[in-house]
Amino acid sequence: xxxxxxxxxxxxxxxxxxxxxxxKEMDTPAVEATRSYKSWVALEDGKEFTYNQKYIKGKEGHxxxxxxxxxxxxxxxxxxxxxxxxxxxxTVQVAVDA
Length: 98
Description:
By secondary structure, this protein is mainly alpha-helical. Helix content is about 55%, strand content about 5%. It has four helices and two strands, in the order αααββα. It has a two-stranded antiparallel ribbon. The longest helix has about 35 residues, at about 60-95. It is elongated and about 60 Å long. The mean pLDDT is about 85.
């Protein structure tokens, strides 16, 4: 690769999704039930909250950005858990077949 012209890669996951797609897919009750989101809700306006980046309580758009970030992590963990379970079952099946 040429360092003078680096290619921009689009990351996978919810960051590549539109807000409308995220809203449609998001498990809002699960996001709102997290310790992180509950701590955010309890903050006073103007206070800073850090969850992978800084959010300011009461600042326009920050509640949505935090929800989206929490959901992105939840979705990643859920998908990884499914993948691990599938790999385990595939391994067991291979062992049974052998």
